[in-house]
Amino acid sequence: MIRTRDDDAVRVVTIDRPARRNALRPEDLTALRTAVAEADAPVTYLRGAGEAFCAGADLDVVAALDDPASFARAGQRTARAIADAETVVVCGIDGAARGGGVELALAADLRVATPAATFAEPGVEFGLFGAWGGTVRLPRVMGEGDALDFALSGRVLDADEALRTGLVSRVVDDPRSVANAIGRGKPDALRAIKRRVRDRRDDGTQEEAEATAFADLVAEHGDDIAATRGV
C-alpha cells in the first residue's frame, strides 16, 4: 500500500506494508510510480512505514511469477519514474533497505539515512540480483569497485559505510528535515538543477543547456537576485 500526503512544499510518499517490511508487489510498484509522477510539490519525500525502509520485492510474489521479466520491467519503470520526476525526490532511509528497496533509493535525487539505516543486496545468496535498474545506477553512485563489492558479497552496510561509499549523501536523525530545507528553494531552480545534473548527453550539449537554463532563471527571478546584492 502506498500513502501520500501533501505538506506545503513536500509530498510525503509512504510505503506502508510494515508487516512485510514494506516489500513491494506489482500493484505497489504501480501506485508508487503514480504517486511520484503526479506530485505537484517541489519536493517528494519517500519513506517506509515501521522499522524498515523497504525490503524490496515481495519474495512470495517473485516465487509465483509466470513472467519474471515483466515484474523486473515494472520495477525499472518505477525507478525511472523516480529518477525522471519533475519533483526533487529525497529518500529518507530509516532501518533496513534491501534489494529493490536499495534500487528505488538509488533512483532518488538524494538518499538521506538515519544512524539506524542498513543496506544490502542479498539476492545473490539465493540466486538473484537487483533488476530494477540497480546494475546501472549502483556503479554511478558508488563507483565500480564499491558497487561490485556490495552486490557480489551480499554484505550489510551500516549508515557510516553507506556514507563513505557515497550510497547516501547524509546521515541525520531526521531525514525529513533535509526534504523540508530543499523545499524552501525556488521550484523552477530545483527543477533546472535536477535536469542539468541528470543530463547524460555530451559535455557541450549539457553546457549549452546549462547556460540557457541559467538565463531563464535570471529572467524569472531578477528582482529577487537584485534584492540579495550586498547580503
UniProtKB/TrEMBL annotation:
CDD domains hit by this protein: crotonase-like
Superkingdom of source: Archaea
Pfam families: ECH_1 (PF00378)
Membership in a protein family: Belongs to the enoyl-CoA hydratase/isomerase family.
Annotated protein name in UniProt: Enoyl-CoA hydratase
Species, as recorded: Halorubrum saccharovorum DSM 1137
